[in-house]
Amino acid sequence: MSDVLVSVDCITYNHASYIRDALEGILSQNTDFAFEILVHDDCSTDGTQDIIREYEEKYPDIVKPIYQTENQYSRDLKFYARYQFPRAQGKYFASCEGDDYWTDPDKLRAQVDYMETHPDCSFCIHGAEFVRPDGDLLRYTHFADSDRDFDLTYFMRNREEFMTATLMIPTRLLTNLPTWYYRALTGDTPIALYALSQGYGHYINRIMSCYRVAAPGSWSANTAKLPHVNFAAYKANLAQLYAAADDFTGYKHHDEMVKHVNEQLRRTVKRAALGFENLSPVRRIQLALMICFPGIYKKIKGDNIID
User: Fold this and answer.
1) How does residue 306 score in pLDDT terms, banded at 50, 70 and 90?
2) Cβ contacts of residue 208 below 8 Å, gap of 6+?
3) Do 206 and 110 contact (CB within 8 A), yes or no?
């Protein structure tokens, strides 16, 4: 039986300028328990893998990397579920992507201490800084003004203030994820929705990590480059994710879910309208089907749209 208490997920792609900050922030944690760092490098080409190998050699019992030889993101694979979740040995699962970093050496201890004494808590997060790629401060999160417990409705109302590098959940939740998790085009939101359906959330009002806004290689930077039709597909997928989660939770948070469904669809139409006149007739038809009749569009294209 493993003595690891926390498994830290660290996915990275072309983060040579940032990956040392991420790994050092994790390795600097003051704990009286063992933790592991599950690094997943998605076929970086900028020297990121060489840096990871340095840490693997120095901390072989902690840094446990996978070096992809083909980019998995471009193949639209759920590499979290395929490569990260199954090898997590800890009782708890935390996250720090390769372009983010932890700033408080007591972060893991603070979250573990709370979750160990509150077994009904299924989702623990904390405050964070938004920083530029060079590390300059932009602003702080405003998820709450003090430590507080919260439910799924409160989370949805403050969703934009949640940063992935702040989460900790029981690893057991990763073994029985609902089907709609695997159909979502993003990872942190469905994990949060599912975790909060299995218990309650707790926010620690303490700045303990940094989120780099639009760092090269990040999800936000990549989506900014997507063609209009792909961006629309992403927003439509988010809307259907909320609808699926609404059904899964027995409509206990229906009003807030409907609000987010409508907001994502509004953004879909607004973004899709940009440059619409420049699209070919075939692309216009595809776009109309995707927005108005996603079920039909899925059958025709086989796209990863949530039922």
Assistant:
1) very low
2) 102, 103, 104, 106, 107, 110, 126, 127, 128, 166
3) yes
Q: Where are the alpha helices (DSSP H) in the chain?
A: 19-27, 48-58, 79, 107-117, 152-157, 179-183, 188-197, 219-223, 228-248, 254-273, 281-292, 294-301
State how far the Cα of 29 lies from the Cα of 111, in Å rounded to an integer.
Answer: 12
Backbone angles phi, psi at 265, to 5 degrees: -65, -35
CA distance 191 to 273: 31
pLDDT, tens digit (0-9, with 9 covering 90-100), for 178-212: 999 988 887 899 999 999 999 999 999 999 999 99
List of residues 6+ apart from 219 with CB closer than 8 A = 186
pTM of the model: 0.85
DSSP lists the bridge partners of residue 210 as: 101, 129
Number of H helices, E strands in the chain: 12, 10
Query: Which pLDDT score, from 0 to 100, does residue 221 have?
Result: 55
4-216 classified as CATH 3.10.20.90: no
Per-domain boundaries in the chain: 4-216, 226-301
C-alpha to C-alpha distance for 272 and 268, rounded to whole angstroms: 6
